[in-house]
Design goal:
This protein has a domain of about 90 residues. It is mainly alpha-helical and about 160 residues long.
């Protein structure tokens, strides 16, 4: 049989270092591992302070003081109806209380001044209604004391 071999040219054996490209460069090789970066926390920023209250004009302060004085007068009239006339406020007491509380409460009451008439109307209504309710309760008590309770009648 004839020789069935096929001649192959000499390719030689490749050098394994030269044949493959380097996977990692020498500069990338370090002996110590790199520490992961820490994320910076956002600094806490407190909210801005509230703006200072707007200055109150003397006319507004006087109006608040007057409204509070009327409110005190109504409250003390309610108390005086129950506890005696010595609880009535004089005009000097009314204006003194209104001025003292008006200056302290003006920043808050200035914004809610539109509700002041309703509050004063409610106080005035209570001042009128409460004495009548108390008189009614006193009349009912007086009637129960004078009239003894009668036993129920049986109707045939």
């Amino acid at each position: 049989m004839p020789d069935e071999t096929i001649p192959v040219p000499e390719l030689g054996t490749p050098d394994p270092v030269d044949a493959l490209p380097p996977l990692v460069s020498d500069a990338d090789l370090t002996l110590e591992p790199e520490m992961p970066r820490k994320r910076r926390r956002k600094m806490y920023e407190p909210p801005p302070p509230p703006p200072p209250p707007e200055p109150i004009s003397p006319n507004e302060l006087q109006a608040v003081a007057k409204a509070l004085g009327v409110g005190f007068r109504v409250i003390f009239q309610i108390v005086a109806a129950k506890r005696g006339e010595h609880w009535q406020l004089s005009e000097g007491d009314e204006s003194m209380l209104g001025a003292a509380w008006g200056e302290a409460l003006a920043p808050w009451l200035k914004d809610s001044a539109k509700y002041a008439p309703f509050a004063l109307a409610a106080l005035a209504t209570v001042g009128v209604v409460m004495p009548k309710v108390q008189q009614d309760a006193a009349l009912v008590d007086a009637l129960q004391v004078q009239t003894p309770m009668q036993p129920p009648r049986i109707v045939e």
